[in-house]
Structure formats: structure tokens, C-alpha cells
Amino acid sequence: NAGVTQTPKFQVLKTGQSMTLQCAQDMNHNSMYWYRQDPGMGLRLIYYSASEGTTDKGEVPNGYNVSRLNKREFSLRLESAAPSQTSVYFCASSEDRGQVSVHEQYFGPGTRLTVT
Amino acid sequence: GENVEQHPSTLSVQEGDSAVIKCTYSDSASNYFPWYKQELGKRPQLIIDIRSNVGEKKDQRIAVTLNKTAKHFSLHITETQPEDSAVYFCAASNGFNKFYFGSGTKLNVKP
Known about the structure:
The complex is a heterodimer. Helix content of chain A is 0%, strand content 48%. By secondary structure, chain A is mainly beta. In chain A, β7 and β8 form a beta hairpin. Helix content of chain B is 0%, strand content 57%. Chain B has no helices and eleven strands. In chain B, the strands form two sheets. In chain B, strands 2, 4, 5, 9, 10 and 11 form a six-stranded mixed β-sheet that branches. At the A-B interface, β5 of A face β5, β9 and β10 of B.
């Protein structure tokens, strides 16, 4: 099993450009997440999807959109990139269905994005 | 929403010593508390977790304690080794797909 995979690994964008970060998992997990990691700030949740066909905002959703294409794939789109979106982006998945009982999250390798 | 605070931000210990990292949380409904280890340039990986119905959990050299009344939980690493050097994150969740992370502790184990 590959676990959680992300593409690309690195990306440089100019302000105003758009791009989509791709994420896929092969563990048959219900829930998928997108986080951003900035120095000294830990991980912050951007969006999550508790099941195929549903998405919800996390702590820092502004400037991003997501699509849960099917059970395996969850993409993150930056419509008009800004320097404040320079960060490392991690995708994660878990068995959870949005219920109170929580299961371990598995993270992808990350995408390092620089916006100039 | 939940607020998780983590201390210290950096910790330096001698090989063989113990290391303790502390986190506090604000939402009394939080019921799941994982700890992640992140090596430089790598993804976070779960090292231990604890649920609110348990006060302590151990896994070899790693232990986590939880005080629900005081709303704090701690990671204890005994007999530290150079390969324990990494950034450690605590997190809290009340379920429903919401995880809140601390700001991280950079642990340096000196040989």
C-alpha cells in the first residue's frame, strides 16, 4: 500500500496564478483533510471531507477550494495565489465518518509551495 | 473553537536523559489526544495517542499522561537517543473531523 500520496512535491507560483494540489489514499478511508504548516504554528486545518461528496471548512479556508472527487481523491485548489499562501501543505486521511469516536490520521509527504 | 498550547518550543537534553513536553487545551469536549513526531522534511507520524477515558498510556520508552480536570496532557520520553531528535506536535480533537495542533517542540538529543 502506498498510503497517502501527494503531487506535486514542490511548486513555485507567481502571485495571481492558480493551481491544484492532488491527494490520493489507498486505505479505503472515509475522511480526508488538507492542512497547511507554517514555521512556529503547527498544522492548521484548511478543509476536510467526512465522506465522499461532502466537504467542510476548517480553521483557515479563505483563498482555497476543495473537491472530493471520489473516495480515494481529495484535491485542494488555489484560485489566485498570494504570498501569504507560501507554506507546506499536507493531506491526511482517517477512518472517521465525522462521528465523535476519532481514529488515527495518516499524512502524505507534503507539498512545498512558494508564491512570489 | 479549541485552543492547544504547547511548551517548551525547544528542548535540549543529553542522551539517556528524560524529556517532557506539555500541552494544554481549552475545550472540555475534547476526547482524543494524539502526539506526532516530524523529522526534518518528512511527514508527521503518530507516535502515541490517548483517549479521555484513560489517564496514562505507555509504549516502550514513550508515555502520555492526561489530566482532564486541569485540561493538560504530557509526553514523556525516557532514555532519550539521538534518533529521538525531531519536532513533536500534540493535538486535540472532540471528534467530527476537527483536529487542533500545538505549535510544536523541537527536541535535540545531544550524544
